[in-house]
Amino acid sequence: MPTRDHSSLAVEEYFLLWAARRSGVLGALLDTAGSPEAVAREADVTEHAARVVIDSLSDLGFVKQVGAEYEITNRALGFLAKRDVRSIGRLPHTLDMFDMWTDLPETMQTGDAPALPDEWTRNRLGAHAATDDATVRARVTAAVREAPNADCVLDICGASGAYAIEFAARGYEATLLDAPAVIDAVAPMLGHRDVRTVAANVPAFETDDQYGLVFAADVTSRYDAAANRTLLGHAFDALEPGGTLVLVDTLRDGSPAAVRARIRALGVGHGDAYSAETYRTWLDEAGFSAVSVRPVPGDERTAVIARRPERAVD
């Protein structure tokens, strides 16, 4: 089962975890050191700092005292177990984003994307795998309503496979397409869930098959305008004539969700939240027709829907 941390941590608590990881205190606890004194020596921090951090981690349930030493609890396994992304949870990726945001002033000055933290891909997949079931169902439902006659679906940049698994559970022939490093991480978990995996270069991906429904959730906000034009052009080619494209993402509409999406993209160094009109322009350029924009019921995301015409338009 995926590791799901539904608790709402205060900002100070997130910074505690971030500082514990960044300073080496968390690594020392995970690896060898068990006492505050040993952690202080291993991480090269003061004993007072080590004790405050360890006591706080204990109060939050990430470690527990056993005799004179401390051991990690199941709540901290996401920092240690990386083989199965379902065991990682959201927190490691959140701390990765803290790393990126602390570099944000330099990123803003140079315009260069910062170096990604260690384990970025697996931590991102862990956070994706921990997506609430209700959210997954809402977004998949929004997609299938637009393509009631589709039999097969391509999930572009499907990450952990949370959406592809839901499509398969509803009887669709589901294919997850993503970068090779992602497929290497998730393919062993998806074979028994009736999800086919395809490793490809995104956004300029190629597929051997065509699909009645092409789906992408939180993908276009990761790319700049040129990359999205490329992505949508290849999505058009992946659709069978008359097929449907559904993009579920945060649109630039002045909402708090749009602000969060834009700041996240700024921290990572690429991507943005785009307006409905921008999507319409891109989709029109790619050859799509019948473009519409609808809110996803029960979710703060928006669905952008477009069709590949039955016949080529002269």
Give the helix tally: 13
Calculate Rg over CA atoms.
Answer: 22 Å
Structural class: alpha/beta
CATH class of the largest domain reads Alpha Beta
Strand content: 15-25%
Distance between the termini: 51 Å
Largest sheet: 7 strands, mixed
Under the CATH scheme, the architecture of the largest domain is: 3-Layer(aba) Sandwich
* Low confidence ranges: none
Pattern of helices and strands: HHHHEEHHHHEHEHEEHEHHEE
> What general outline do the C-alpha atoms trace?
elongated
How much helical structure, as a percent, in the residues? 40-55%
Mean pLDDT, all residues:
93
Overall number of strands: 9
Strand order of the largest sheet: 5-4-3-6-7-9-8
Task: Find the CATH superfamily of the largest domain.
Answer: Vaccinia Virus protein VP39
Organism: Halogeometricum borinquense
InterPro entries: SAM-dependent_MTases_sf
Keywords: Methyltransferase, Transferase
Protein name: Class I SAM-dependent methyltransferase
Describe the structure.
By secondary structure, the protein is an alpha/beta fold. It has 2 domains: 11-127, Orthogonal Bundle (Arc Repressor Mutant, subunit A), CATH 1.10.10; 131-307, Rossmann fold. The chain is 44% helix and 18% strand. It is built from 13 helices and 9 strands. It has helices at residues 11-23, 25-31, 36-43, 47-59, 91-102, 104-110, 120-129, 133-144, 162-169, 180-190, 225-238, 256-268, 276-286, and strands at residues 63-66, 69-72, 152-156, 173-178, 195-199, 211-217, 239-249, 289-295, 302-307. Helix 1 (11-23) crosses helix 5 (91-102) and helix 5 packs across helix 7. The longest helix is centred in the last third of the chain and has 14 residues, at 225-238. The protein is elongated, with a radius of gyration of 22 Å. The N and C termini lie far apart (51 Å). The mean pLDDT is 93. One of its GO terms (molecular function) is methyltransferase activity. It comes from Halogeometricum borinquense. This is Class I SAM-dependent methyltransferase. Keywords: Methyltransferase, Transferase.
